[in-house]
Amino acid sequence: MEQVKENEGSLSWPEPVRVLQPDGPLARLTGLPESRKRVAWKEIQTLNPALAALLREQPLQQAVKEFGAEIFIEAQYAPSLPLESLKGRAR
User: Fold this and answer.
1) How far apart are alpha carbons 43 and 2 in whole angstroms?
2) Beta strands 72-74 and 26-28: pairing type?
3) 71 in Cβ contact with 37 (< 8 Å)
4) What CA–CA distance (Å, rounded) separates 86 from 70?
5) pLDDT digits 0-9 by tens, 14-49
6) Could you state, in order of their start, the residue ranges of all structural domains in the chain?
7) Using an 8 Å Cβ cutoff, are 27 and 75 in contact?
8) Measuring CA to CA, which residue among 46, 45, 48, 33 is closest to residue 81?
9) What is the CA radius of gyration of the chain?
10) What's the rounded Cα separation, in Å, for the pair 58 and 46?
């Protein structure tokens, strides 16, 4: 416990983290029919394995369920899905 207190304040992101391109095309993953979900999942696993791993994480799945959230990803990682816009963004 003392070690944690010793290092308090020194924790920070080592570099900026880009969450989403400002106006890049998006694809919605939530609410897909099973057939489209399977195709999109194969594309994500192939094109961005790190994203696939994140989407499998239990805390993310719990948050989506708890808040009734929708998941949008950059469309380039699931090219078979139609392009979508976030609510409140100019189309």
Assistant:
1) 46
2) antiparallel
3) no
4) 10
5) 665 566 555 779 999 999 999 999 999 999 999 999
6) 25-86
7) yes
8) 33
9) 17
10) 21
